[in-house]
Amino acid sequence: MEFTLIKPLFGGFLLGLAALSLLFFNGRVAGVSGILGGFLSFRKRDTLWRFAFLTGLVAGGVLLLATCPETLDLNLKSSPPAVMLAGLLVGIGSRMGSGCTSGHGICGIGRLSQRSMIAAVIFLSSGIAAAVSIDLVFGGLI
Fold it and tell me: Is this model's pTM higher than 0.70 or not?
């Protein structure tokens, strides 16, 4: 598989366009953890747009799998329990940080939010520290 910048740039453009559209037309920030949390709380008159957004995320993944399956060909070296633990820790971190990388990293930085800039630095630093630590202690495998 050859490296090309076209697909990542196009994906980034689509993410930015979706985030801007949601903010412009709905007054909402496209933070996935907040959207999912709000959807699961079943607030009246606030679930339709959340459902549409989450459905679009899943539909985008299905469309990508159907059209470019090689982009989703992941060969994980970690065990399934390690992947589940990582997902749980990301969820806990999103809750503690009052948002996730999409809300803070894409939308918050785009709005020049100081809080989001700090959160993004903490997300990245924590991820780098965790990856390096896992690699040093466990040889990259858990």
Answer: yes
